[in-house]
Amino acid sequence: MSEPRPNYGITRIDQPEKKNHGFYVRITHRGKGFQKYFPDKSLGGKPKALKAAKAYRDSLLEKMPRYKQESAAKKKRKIKQSGVVGITHVVSKSPKGTVYEYWQAAWVDGEGNRRTAKFSIARYGDEKAMDLAKKARRDGLKGKV
To answer: What's the whole-model pTM score?
Structure first.
């Protein structure tokens, strides 16, 4: 098995008001969830709780198909942020393996239908594609599109 990202599937829980400190492992595969909590206090401290959480996570991943193990090991991509609600940077891959990047605008029209508009980064460049998406969303919300 390839080595998963250090904290893949593991979340730190710190709730001082409830005296609740530990690590929570949560992994979903094909709609089935696996979860378990590892408290610091009963496991002898934070490092030991983390070690136990990683061991549990790794034992779950060993039982899963290779593609799930590989996705757990892949480094997460940094997602571009638009800073505007309804404007999203999208990276998609065609069945032939071609990667497409675009900015997408999404809004709900006056009749309650969800609308989207996509602007290719390859065609317009990153900045112009984002500006076009922002304009499309503004116009869509005003009812011009």
So the answer is: 0.51
